[in-house]
Amino acid sequence: MTAARGPGQESLPGGARDPAHGSAPGAHAGHAREDPGPEVTARAALTRVLEPGDEPAGRWLREHGAVGLMRLLTGPDPQPAALGGAGPRRLAGYRARAAVADPRRDLAAAAAAGCRFVCPGSAQWPTQLDDLGDARPVGLWVRGTPDLRTWALRSVAVVGARACTPYGAHMAHTLAAGLAERGWVVVSGAAYGIDGAAHRGVLSSGGATAAVLACGVDVAYPRGHAGLLGAIAGQGLVLGELPPGSHPTPARFVLRNRVIAALTRGTVVVEAAHRSGSLVTARRARELGRFTMGVPGPATSGLSAGVHELLRGEAVLVTDAAEVVELVGGIGELAPERRGPVLPRDLLHPDTARVLEALPAGRPAQVEELALAAGTGTDEVIGRLYELHSLGFVERLGDGWRLTSQTRR
Predict the structure, then answer these.
(1) Cis? peptide before 336, omega within 30° of 0
(2) Nearest Cα residue to 175 out of 50, 241, 270
(3) In terms of residue numbers, what domain contains 43?
(4) What is the DSSP string of 194-220?
(5) pLDDT in tens, 337-350
(6) Of the N and C termini of the chain, which has fewer Cβ atoms inside 10 Å?
(7) Distance between CA atoms of 217 and 112, rounded to whole angstroms?
(8) pTM for this prediction
(9) Are 142 and 239 spatial neighbours (Cβ–Cβ below 8 Å)?
(10) H-helix or E-strand containing 236?
(11) Domains in the chain: how many in total?
């Protein structure tokens, strides 16, 4: 993918060219044009140099641009003021990584694997990620054909415990399938447990799902989900901040969660213990002004304790896809009213119901007794009793009235 350099095109780290002669920022690899341009090339290199969520480095990127930052990291030692906030040892680590970064190779490897690199300024860049400020991803490596920006506009995160219960897996599966059937993209992390159940729920309904990874998008992690990740890439999207071949670490999993939170309209936590990483996603979503939701579980379950703690705070309790959509959707997308079955006595006029309630359960009663108990006149009681008789609620026994056997149940 290396392009020949023409007159006046200054060579930059990683084979990039001077911005004045490059392509527009935000172009992405995997399309017909071979040269992605200096901005994209520099950003691809920086995904190999910087760890996700590195805010000091994000500030340098904002101040100097991707091409300028790569120049600083690969040229002579920069002035301390240019890259403030990093000690000598940390800066040496950045420079060592920058010296061996080969973005052209990474972009070519991504294209060969059916992946592309999307960065700020691209038509496919989800601008809601800009809410992360200096912790915004340098760019995203994406596997799958759908348009990332379009999908992210109508997406919900479904996350939770890896060691989930059958109840949690069932709820994640049915909730995600319901969201997909309503036209929503379900985003999760492709981990075991709740994440996997959510992805499978969407795939089984033929819907749209996206997996955000803490490793390269060409790496099957966890290994047991290699088939699932292939299915997601075939029907949806697999994306991440790390370049091809990168392995996951505990810190990268935590930082990955901020992307899930920022990318989506809201986050639903299905099951989570007190120290679950999915709670990090939910709290970050709340900080970003997104909706935070939780599915309740048994009060005695430790795997629901974290969710219940969220629900005691600012999270909203949800039990199905309709209730999620009512929060994150547009005006008029309301969940159906929840109520128990309507009983025949619920349809009675209040005065008739009061006479019915005055009838004792185990014996007949006289009209005068019922008038006293109902607080009304005998003529009114007689009229209401005949109405109840026609509806099958009461029967006459001599001079008294009693409840029918069906009413007494």
Answers:
(1) no
(2) 270
(3) 13-111
(4) HHHHHHHHHHHTT--EEEEESS-TTS-
(5) 777 787 888 889 99
(6) C
(7) 12
(8) 0.80
(9) yes
(10) none
(11) 3
